[in-house]
Design a protein that fits this description.
Helices cover 38% and strands 28% of the residues. By secondary structure, it is an alpha/beta fold. Strands 1, 5, 6, 7, 8, 9, 10, 11, 12 and 13 form a ten-stranded mixed β-sheet that branches. A three-stranded antiparallel β-sheet has the order 2-3-4.
Amino acid sequence: MKKVVCLLLAAATVISLAGCSKSDDKLIVGTEAGFAPYEYMEGDKVVGIDIDISQAIADALGKELEIKNMDFDGALLAVQQGKVDFVAAGVSVDDERKEKMDFSNEYVNSTEVIVVNKATPAVSSKEDLNDKVIGVQQGNIADFYVSEPENVTPKDIKRYTKFAQAAEDLKNNKIDCIVMDQYPAEELVGSNDTLAIITKTDGTYDVLFEDKYAIAVKKGNKELLDKINEVIDKLIEEGKIDEFTANHTK
């Protein structure tokens, strides 16, 4: 009887797992919709540059795009575990991430800037970050950058899952600045009159460093990666990514 019960339980488990598997007619993208203009909420819908790119990939594969909105770190973990097909979330490529997942061709240049409290700026330039409390999005390239002593020696690093949370702390002087991508920084400052991006004397941004974004897939998923690269190369060649960017940065 015990053997029969075990066999029945095993069969039930197989059926259960089959029911939880991803559908062949859907393509699941993991993202974090707090990084405008790359991914953000418009009402109850996730939109943005990365979502337009993801839709183009789904269209090329003849599949329905399903969007999973989650924390940035959670999205990267989900693709490693095969819970999503790929991640499009302003993902920077570095050697540590390359060990855990594979990356598409790069599709956008990222410029990292510094956001401060306009009324009481605790930081005046990129050379002024040492011994300051710096806010970053947990797990992104700015987090890695300010964590390296050869780059910055901060008093503390406050890590957030959403930039909106960091903005509130900056407005209340709980942190000294936020290091983040230029476009999301412009969106953040545009919706918060009390914040500003640090500029140089000539009026241009005081750029901390530059980076590039790519799409992440599960390690070894060459078939999907090759198709994604085909789509990205075509979008770049046709000027579509510039068009997507213009549509979401008006």
